[in-house]
Amino acid sequence: MTKDTSTEESQHNAAKRRAKGEFVRGVSGFRHAVGDPGFPAEPGRYHLFVALNCPWCHRVTLARAVLGLQDSITMDVAFPNRTTEDDPVGPNLWEFSPARTASLTGTTLPECTAETGTGEGLRLAKQIYQREGSDEQSVPILYDKIAGRIVNNESAEILRMLDAHAAALGAPANRPRLLPEDQATRQQIEELNDRIYVTINNGAYKAGFSSDQQVYQAAYTAYFETLAFLNNLLSDGRSFLTGDAFTEADLRLFPTLYRHDPVYYLRMKLNGAKILDYPHLWRWLCRVHGLDGVAEAGSLIHCRQGYFGRSWNGVIPLGPHAPMPYPEAYAHPELARD
């Protein structure tokens, strides 16, 4: 798969940059593709390991949903908070633990599952990697149940291969095409992907998790400049970023904007404005949320539990409630602040 700045961040001087307080996203190590020798495209063969609070996982759960692959690609969902310091294996590990209680709700989370993809009932995502001699521990993971191997753990590549092989994987004939054949549209998508990844998807994390004020300020500024750019792009009445059709560019933007008002506004220190304040973007957000399968592909309960539950004191804010609670607000495009 081709590496570019819309897929992964440059690792140049990464250790030095991290030491100075900059958040630098690491690189995924498993880069096979469906369609490679040993990984044929066929229904029922593949499995996803995800966490619904993770925006990178949200990309692949969205692709699975909008392409109609829910019945042909199975999926396990980790608990939104990772293991704690008192875990015998160690802290900060993704855990498949359907019996774990969420502090936000006081109950278990019905979306969380045990691990079923390997057939071994593993507790930790790390253990899936250890079976292949890797020390990685991230999600999402695309897994081949027949070969018993990890195919890929880079979300940008997973969603693209699901789209490219959707028919062979078992998608219905009326599915959307996330990356259309038209070269002009593809070029628009690639340009949007690059800006959205750098300033919005990864930019939110660079703002929220960097400890250097200048790095934060640069990320904050770029984030809101791109929101203004996208709002203006949609101001001509188009339904989606490249026109009348939902594409990969829309899919890759959605997870971050879905989280902005109820989570990132506070947690990532992106408090310059809410998506409500960008009327064309807000209506776009509501439009995408209303597409078949999209609402079920994510969970703001998991997002709030995951992001705030691992903050310094673990207390999860109860709002926002105005103009109405989220995600219910996404059914109301008229809430946009024109």
From TrEMBL:
Enzyme class label: oxidoreductase
Residue ranges with Basic and acidic residues bias: 1-11
Residue ranges of domain GST C-terminal in the record: 182-326
Family annotation (Pfam families): GST_C_2, GST_N_2
Single Gene Ontology MF annotation: oxidoreductase activity
Domain of life assignment: Bacteria
InterPro entries to which the protein is assigned, alphabetical: Glutathione-S-Trfase_C-like, Glutathione-S-Trfase_C_sf, Glutathione_S-Trfase_N, GST_Omega-like_C, GST_Omega/GSH, Thioredoxin-like_sf
Keywords per UniProt: Oxidoreductase
Single GO cellular component term: cytoplasm
EC number: 1.8.-.-
Spans annotated as Disordered: 1-20
Database matches in CDD domains: GST_C_Omega_like
PANTHER family per the UniProt record, alphabetical: GLUTATHIONE S-TRANSFERASE OMEGA-LIKE 1-RELATED, GLUTATHIONYL-HYDROQUINONE REDUCTASE
Designated name of the protein: Glutathionyl-hydroquinone reductase YqjG
